[in-house]
Amino acid sequence: MPIYFLRRVLAAIPVMLVVAVFVFLLLRLTPGDPAAILAGDMATPEQLDRIRETLGLNDPLLVQFFRWIGALLQGDFGTSLISNKPVIDLVADRMWPTIWIAIITLSLSVIIAVPMGVLAAWKQGSWVDHLVMTFSVLGFSVPVFVIGYLLIKLFAIDLRWLPVQGYKAPSKDLAGFAARAVLPALTLASIYIALIARMTRASLLDVLNEDYVRTARAKGLTEARVLFRHALRNAAVPVMTVIGTGFALLISGVVVTESVYNIPGLGRLTVDSIFARDYPVIQALILLTSGVYVLVNLLIDLSYSLLDPRIRY
Amino acid sequence: MPVLQIEDLHVSVDSKAGLEVVHGISIEINEGETVCLVGESGSGKSVSSLATMGLLPKGSLKVTSGRILLDGENLLDLSPAQLRDARATRMSMIFQEPMTALNPVIKVGEQITEVLQAHTKLSNADCHARVMDILDQVGLPDIERIARSYPHQLSGGQRQRIMIAMALVLEPRLLIADEPTTALDVTTQLQILKLIKDLQVKHGTAVLFITHDMGVVAEIADRVYVMNRGDLVEDGPVSQILSAPQKDYTRQLLSSVPSLVPRPARPVTDPKPALQVSELNKIYGGGKFLSKTKTTHAARDVTFELKAGRTLGIVGESGSGKSTVARCVMRMIDPSSGGIRVGGQEIAGLTRGGLHPFRKKLQMVFQDPYRSLNPRLTIEESIIEGPVNYGMPKDQARARAAELLELVGLPASAAQRYPHMFSGGQRQRIAIARALAMEPELLVADEAVSALDVSVQAQVLELLAEIQQRTGIAILFITHDLRVAAQICDEVCVMRRGEVVEIGATGDVLGNPQHEYTQALLSAAPGRDWDFANFRPVAA
Hints:
The complex is a heterodimer of chains A (313) and B (540).
Chain A: H1 2-29, H2 34-39, H3 45-55, H4 61-73, H5 87-122, H6 127-141, H7 144-158, H8 174-208, H9 211-218, H10 223-252, H11 255-261, H12 266-276, H13 279-307
Chain B: E1 4-13, E2 20-29, E3 34-38, H1 45-53, E4 61-70, E5 73-74, H2 80-86, E6 91-94, H3 98-101, H4 108-119, H5 124-137, H6 143-147, H7 156-168, E7 174-178, H8 186-203, E8 206-211, H9 214-220, E9 223-228, E10 231-237, H10 238-243, H11 248-256, E11 273-284, E12 296-307, E13 311-315, H12 322-329, E14 337-342, E15 345-346, H13 352-359, E16 362-365, H14 379-389, H15 394-407, H16 424-436, E17 442-446, H17 454-471, E18 474-479, H18 482-488, E19 491-496, E20 499-505, H19 506-511, H20 516-524, E21 530-531, E22 536-537
Parallel strand pairs in B: 3-8, 3-9, 6-7, 7-8, 13-18, 13-19, 16-17, 17-18
Antiparallel strand pairs in B: 1-2, 1-4, 4-5, 9-10, 11-12, 11-14, 14-15, 19-20, 21-22
Helix pairs in contact in B: 4-5, 5-7, 7-8, 14-15, 14-16, 15-16, 16-17
């Protein structure tokens, strides 16, 4: 197992390198000049040249690339072209809101979706099943921003139970954090609830036809024990995959929700930096996201062997 | 009072126009008695046993009338909770495939403990003691370690012992065993049958034993019930059923059981060798950089020759390497060393491209006719795919497919239909037609009749013999069933752990075995003392 882990980590290095090259080129090759944006509309060509010179934008691409990679390896992600703060601080500030929302969203999704899926599979073909399936079709097909604004209208404006927008750090004000996090989390969760519930149902339906489920019933176990102890764990591997991928997607895909709910997270940072062509920040964000994907995939694979003793690396 | 008394049981498909699948059967089992329920697939024997346990698949089958009395109490009147309480405590069941019947992600010790937790109030220490005691009773070695193992870490025989331990830990009055030894090797089967018998004598359990294997019936039954298509055909003491069956169906069923007495080898008509295998070795594993794995010598210096128009059987238990040899011959896997000559041409070292012209000469029929035909292709598409691939014009291939279907005894209208519209025996005929479409010189049949009922099995074996006579094809017949080997093979090669232990004419090898392993295999064959087709003991 440790050797497997090491091999997986080593295998991630070329992946990250390819991402780095891609990220670097992508931004250099898109139109738009960061120097012009920095200098503002009134700048003279001489001023622009001076800015380019200080940022190293006039050097050959290869030189720029190695300078950038070299700095990266020392933990220096550069300085924001706009705010002049170190990129790493900017990202670190914005990371926590996003991670918190992602964790709450996924916990909520799992707590709601797994029992829904189990119930639907157990009562296959009944009204419960149809209800769950209808709900999951809705969860898939209604866009996130529609759900977001509907929830705000209902819970924040009409019922006045929760604040409309904003963010408070859980370390400072737990109740305030919870009150502000629940709507964005629910909004994001809608699609994951749909996905996880469907996956749980499908996977469990397969497992419920297995011989060992019949054996469990033949032993005189209660239905709850048959479902949760014997069936669910065997059905867990595909569900685990969806949850893991879901986490990675959440870290990178919170742009809309953070805009709707005005949360100072990575999603808004991404949007802001793209509009401002803040190269160093965008690069750091893309690298961070791919890093999260690689890490999550590794964790998913490791979770397989915990769930199913037949899987060994 | 009988332990189990089934009275006029009717079971139907659970829908409005519910088709009846069991038409009023009555069965009685007394304490300490072993009753065999025999029949071919679709006879309703498993359905009847599942109905007894209350385990009919919900929404697809239901009991429509009748009574099932366990010690005089009608199980059909019980509430779900009462029925749950009766399971494992008063009646238990073991199943055919011990690999899939045990939960793969829970340790076997815990799976047995679970029965105690569900039905008793024993302390953890008492539970553990009970589990160890029953594991010991079912004859498992090193019980502490086994209790901590997962099912995939145990052998097939060990897994079935675990199932038996789980079923008997609370000493139920009734044990239902649904084909419990069908998936096991003969030597393991013998041990399991003996174990069930021993435990039955010790605890006075009534056993309902469901099987399709007349050999097993002859071995263990006190009384026999014969079922066919949901009806009870005949019942009586085992000696009466085997020696003086009253009904045609029973006679026909017994006559289909292939005899262990080998048929005489046919004279060699064509001395041309179709297949020569010399010193074939196949080693699995060895691993790569950073992942050394244990190597397995799956085939060791295997040498044999097969002449045109003849049949060579490779027999052996699971893990003997018989399928490995077949796959090497087909070049589905690469042999580690050794020679394979087809029609005099060496093919062991050929590359994919070099092999292409020889693929035509080698065709295979697989074990499971339900999975070896593509469900999305019509029969005709399946049959013509190979020839068309080798350049035959489509029209010609279609005409050929029609001929082949006739040859294997199917109507021409079968061509446009899909595999799911056919029975297991018909599908195996289609698979044979598909193999013959390539006009091969060698047909490799890997357990090709093992999944079929005996009556269908007899027909398919007959078909193979007939085709061989007509086309002069050589057949390499892989089987674990000595009865089948005795009836179809001219020569037999016995394998154990990758090695050939005995090879020669079928009459010699199975009639007068020299190697102790061959002798062990023969003496483990259930019902070896009974000549089923002639309704009498084998003449000494």
